[in-house]
Amino acid sequence: MACVATGIVLAVIGFSKIAGQADDIFAIDTTASRTFSDGDSLQLFAPEDSVTPTCTFDGPADVTGGSEVSTNFGYDGQQIESFRTVEIKASGSYTISCDRPAYGAPALSAGVVAMSAGGILLAVFGGGFGFILTVVGIVLWVVGARSARA
What we know:
By secondary structure, this protein is α+β, with helices and mostly antiparallel strands. About 40% of the residues lie in helices and about 30% in strands. The chain is built from two helices and nine strands; from the N terminus they run H-E-E-E-E-E-E-E-E-E-H. It has helices at about 1-25, 110-150, and strands spanning about 25-30, 30-35, 40-45, 55-60, 65, 70-75, 80-85, 90-100, 100-105. Strand 6 and strand 7 (about 80-85) form a beta hairpin.
């Protein structure tokens, strides 16, 4: 039972962070300005099956490539998929310029995705294993009670 409860809690926490990414998305209609803090990660998205935009960042410091976690989901009536993740190295205002329309959102870490998937697996397999052990225990109890009578 504890495995199921823990798995559900992990999955809910992970999926709420994933859902939060969709809430924080913003459009980059060739140019957008945003304020970021040092250490923030930003994931860039484009409509699925479209030409990947080329984007540049102008701000207090250069951005670097972040961990690549592939993400896609429905937004504004279309499927969008990630094509680049960047890490912000200095706090301040940044202008993002893309040669095609794109979208930006706070990046998901691999840990959030693993937490969501791990929570589901823990609940399913931990709960299943617990159920099997319970059935085996009941069978052994019944067999033990019958042999004690004989």
